[in-house]
């Protein structure tokens, strides 16, 4: 069996540490500029379009699966990450590309919320409405109910973001062996200072039957 090697492409929402990235923020104009504008341009329309290193191939995904859906989430042409209030986050060197999804105008959609948002958007897109359900830390259920419209979904998620987080999501998800990791899986540490990231894409290297170390 070939050794599976992760392509480092994970979706997460967080506040990163400050760093000297070459970006300059103008507080008066509320604009962010970059010394080399070409470096801030993303040419890939989706994750599936991002080329792999030589010798790698993407893992196959089942039709209509969560993993397949994630590969086709649209990416923004601009790599800048903005906070909920429209200001750019300080460290702009942490991301390779930015998913083209809204952040809303409230300080609610953080790491676990972004994970729940992507899962809910997939279930909505595939009309699996009854499977859109999340639980708070006391195991109170928050199911998505009619009307099954996009506007209502986003209103529903505002409630979920306020009531659920890493602590509750860690209880709702099922543990798997790290050797069996797949796109759509969540690396999570539940708690009230927890964190969560989602694996968006994976590839494996050709011709490697064993991974060895000195």
Give an account of the 3D structure.
This protein is 20% helix and 15% strand. It is globular and about 50 Å long. It contains 4 helices and 10 strands; from the N terminus they run βββββααββααβββ. It has helices at 66-71, 111-125, 150-163, 166-172; strands spanning 4-5, 10-11, 23-26, 31-34, 56-58, 133-135, 141-143, 186-189, 195-199, 203-205. With 214 residues, the protein is α+β, with helices and mostly antiparallel strands. The chain has one domain (4-17, 32-205). The strands form 4 sheets. It has a 3-stranded antiparallel beta sheet with strand order 1-10-5, with no helix packed on it. A 3-stranded antiparallel beta sheet has the order 2-9-8, covered by helices on one side. Strands 3-4 form a two-stranded antiparallel ribbon.
